[in-house]
Amino acid sequence: MPQSTVPFSLVLALALTMMLGPFSMDTYLPAFPVIGESLGVGQQAVSLSVSVYIFGLAFGQLVGGALSDRFGRQRILMAGLVVFALSSLVIAQAETLGTLLVGRIFQAFGAGWVLVSVPALVRDRVGGRDAAKLFSMMGFIMVLAPGVAPSVGSLLLQFGSWHVIFVALAVYALLLVPMLLQVVFHKNRRVSRQKSNLSILQRYRAVLSTRQALPFIVWQSAAFSTMMLFVTYASFIYQGHFEQTPSAFSFLFAANIITMLCFNIANRILLSRLPSLRILQLATCCQALGMVLLVLATFNDWGLYGFLAAMMLTIGSMGAISPNIQACFLEFFPLSGGTAAALLGAAQFGIAGTVSALSALLPHTLEALILAMAACAAVGVLMLLRSLIKGRASVEAG
User: Fold this and answer.
1) Biological process GO annotation list (predicted)?
2) Which of 378, 337, 398 shows the shortest CA–CA distance to 123?
């Protein structure tokens, strides 16, 4: 099906579903101080809820992706929404850090089943540059979520305790069910896929044996880890180091999302002229430049706004990096989109979760955090250089 024939209602429905991920990670960020006070722990302990969520998301995607190839997207997606909603309600009753962390693990597992189904649904319908355009159209809507989420969290805190945030997340997940049934899984919108009786391990073995696709997993994991380090410590950076209020934090956080939105718009325009890989290479160069400026801003004390500008370029470039990596990677797997999407998603969240957890061992300073982000971004630069070398070798061979 050509991308141009994809109805906007379908794009919107898939984007709203994908928004569940950033909403569940970012909505409660402004509440970190009050959560710590309520549970009798420090903000660094509350930050563990981000790390365990990332690990749970990775594991949930690994399981859900292969199951969606075997049993269908609808069953896995709906089951994930139910698990997410129920665990969110459990978190809303949490009175200890342990309950919060366990609830976040199950919440992430459900979210993993949800998130892995969306790229697979896209791959079921379109491929190549058309897939990149559809991912970008979804991203145009979905990229608003991380910017809006902290503001929504701050607003909810005005009307109740931090527990209300997780009740709202449960309601959001449940409201997605009738929308998806009507728009995505309507009988006239079903897409037939070839089915096989391969086991989960056989499916992952087949994906992992496609060596040309594997560098994109490393590339995405590196770029995503750079962003997740920022998300994990955003409250510490702006509310702790720069001593900003929760309301100011929401605006500072949203500034990064505005840049991401600009990159996403530019990506959609460039896709009519350039292949996904070339745009990916350019976006990675932008992230590398932003990271260099961020290191300079940190160690030369450029102040809040100099730091913010560098961070906006570093994080904003993800608006063009992620959709093009997804499109380039999934192009290799026309019949195993769910398994492939699961592996990509699990790898990025698993590696980012490991990096986030290990970052707790670093000195609790802005300088240490920025150097950790720079190390992750450097891996993305290596993948960029590898793709350029491979591309040049292909041209010479031709």
Assistant:
1) xenobiotic detoxification by transmembrane export across the plasma membrane
2) 337
One-letter amino acid of 12: L
CB atoms within 10 A of CB 277: 19
Dihedral sign of CA atoms 201, 206, 210, 216 in order? negative
pLDDT at 190 over 80: no
DSSP string spanning 178-230? HHHHHHTS-GGG----------HHHHHHHHHT-TTTHHHHHHHHHHHHHHHHH
Assign 13 to helix, strand or coil.
helix
d(CA 184, CA 190): 8
Task: Work out the angle at residue 194's Cα, subtended by the Cα atoms of residues 190 and 197, and round it to the nearest 5 degrees.
Answer: 120
Backbone angles phi, psi at 209, to 5 degrees: -80, -10
Q: What is the CATH number of the domain that holds 384?
A: 1.20.1250.20
Confidence band, pLDDT 50/70/90 cuts, at residue 246 = confident
Tokens coding 285: 């160069």
Measured distance CA(168)–CA(160) in Å, rounded: 11
Q: Is the pLDDT of residue 16 over 50?
A: yes
200, burial (CB in 10 Å: exposed 0-12, middle 13-18, buried 19+):
middle
Tell me the residue range of the domain where 60 lies. 3-190+197-397
Asked if 56 and 103 touch (Cβ cutoff 8 Å), the reply is no
| Radius of gyration (C-alpha) of the chain in whole angstroms | 20
What residue type is assigned to position 303 of the chain? Answer: G
Contact 60, 117 (CB under 8 A): no
Q: Write down the pLDDT at residue 292.
A: 97
Chain centroid to CA 383:
19
Provide the H-helix boundaries in 126-183.
128-142, 144-159, 163-183
Name the residue with tokens 């709906």: 78
d(CA 161, CA 225): 31
Phi-psi region of 366 (alpha: psi -120 to 50; beta: other; left: phi over 0): alpha
With beta carbons less than 8 A apart as the criterion, state whether 123 and 131 touch: yes
* Distance separating alpha carbons of residues 235 and 239, to the nearest angstrom: 5
pLDDT, tens digit (0-9, with 9 covering 90-100), for 59-115? 888 888 778 777 778 888 999 999 999 999 999 998 899 999 999 999 999 998 998
In which residue are the tokens 């698990």 written? Answer: 83
